[in-house]
Amino acid sequence: MVHKLIRNRFAIIASLLIITVIVVIVYQFMWGSRQLPVIDKAPSFTMSDMYGKPVSLQESDGKVRLVSFHYTRCPDICQATNLNIIRIQQKLKEEGVLGNKTQLLTITFDPKNDTEEVLQRYTAERNIQPEGWRFLRGTPEQTKEVLDGFKVYVEDSGNGFLTHSNELFLLDGQENIRAIYKMGDQMDNEQIFKDMKALLQ
Does domain 40-200 have CATH number 3.40.50.300? Predict the structure, then answer.
């Protein structure tokens, strides 16, 4: 009798463990949830957007942010990256979280050439939604400080173009870096979108 009770108890525990594993797998499959450990603290900064309005990382109000870097004269990877972020922008808008719970930030490597007017024209031509996606520029000193804070490098190639890192960063509502992705054609838009949603839970 005792052995039977013990066997039944172990059977119940094993069944509960199996059910728990199944629930976790189903949740991850449906919602794309995965572990997103804190990688580092994002640097504090205040820069101006394409309309000259100041944007501070500390004013995110708990928003989940995707931070990328580019310059408008970039002939390849920056353009591919922004096309992918446009698709992410659309998915966030359809979910009703663009601007109010999530924000996209793109910081220029090249504030000298990427003036407010240039950024305004660039964003208008690509139907970028300013309520949820801000293109930022700073002084050369501010730009260097932000790049150093994110451990992003940029170098003048001497031919009118820049050589630069190809990462973008996912930040939670406390300005912690929770994921780092590759730019350009290597971007997994669906995974980035799922990760952003997971941080909103």
Answer: no
